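Annotated sample (chain length 461).
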Amino acid sequence: MIKQAWTEAALLPTGWARRVLLEWQADGALARIHADCDAPDGCTVLPGPVIPGMPNLHSHAFQRGFAGLTEFRAQDADSFWSWRDLMYRFAARIQPQQLEAIATWLYVEMLEAGYTSVCEFHYLHHDPAGRPYAEPQALSQALLRAARRAGIGMTLLPVLYQHSNFGGQVPTEGQRRFVQSTDDMLRLLERLLPECQAQGAQLGLAPHSLRAVTPASLRESLAGLDAIHPSAPIHIHIAEQTKEVDDCIAWSGRRPVQWLLDAAPVNERWCLVHATHMIGDEALAAARSGAVAGLCPTTEANLGDGIFDLAQWRQGEGRWGIGSDSHVCVNAAEELMLLEYSQRLATRQRNIIADEAQPQVATASMLAAVAGGAQAAGRPVAGLAPGQSADFVVLDARHVALSGLDPQDMLSAHVFASARSSAVRQVWQAGSCRVDDGRHALHDDAVAGFAAARSALTQFQ
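Output written by the structure step:
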């Protein structure tokens, strides 16, 4: 059975179109899109302009539970590394039911903020003592249940984490819940594949970083992944911190991105998360590999990582998408705004992401982030086109920042001028309305579950 919705304006992959009819099948896949047409009798008329749902290409769900609680000086020079110690303390206590409660609220929050799918970079595998659960996939299942309950699309990326630094150094006490042998990880993937397929989720693999896996483990895990799921996405943290770059050079004589390009078959299946600190030829080679750069502007700013050189990446026609990572901010529009603003600060120019083909910054950045995020997710979420999931956001034309504007100017105001108040009215995922009038049906219950879990986990800090 075909379902229909009509809107006065919609942002298609080719740009803005007027009087658009969306048609999708019972499985939520878009079948046809008609522009310049009237609304058929009985069709759902959407209450505002429509933009594609945003894929969130990098998430650590459990970190939402302590977002905002690390903003104090713990030593003379706080950095990512001192923040990581606080994160380990929080991660050491989480139980499966608490993870599910935190993730359920997070995924509700994402939907309310315009994200319709998420790539979950999941490295919390074992119990607090570092022992496998009786069901080794228990924490992964908690995330899958949360995604199913909230109604968000999922790409689950179990993380291979084995060492504390380059050269196979012994993991620390704080990393004991993360550590998996390569064989155990491949068995986990085999267990999870049918569970993911049953709910329409994608399964991939995330070698955590070059710090956390040896070259041999990287080769073996990639070969094993290909045997289990040959098209699975592969995500990796890389070149996030200058210390990481310096340590990699000391270990291998090469910068991390260059080492990875030389040692692994990096292509369109890969997402290079952060990739903040690249230079010259390695950046161009990475961009031309077809891999997606996974940019997380609010987290990268919060952790003091540095600024991604987007102009350099675009010289190689590099693809990119956005993620909320540690979830100090859960707002797709705000990630796009901060990405553009960081480039302005670095270059002392304006309107950086726009180009001759698309002079509107918000439109250009939305289309690029959706396309790159869909590639990284390995799911058909690349915007409003036949064969893609019916994932879309209806902007709130009643919002004071948007009221009375042309649709493309509404999008610009949504990204740059909504003043941290929501300009999202409805969110549809796979053809189902998950958010109406700005709120998810689970909002209140999910908030209560999240608050209880966070209280239990933070009361001993």
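Annotation: The CA atoms of residues 247 and 444 lie 46 Å apart.
Annotation: DSSP finds 14 helices and 18 strands in the chain.
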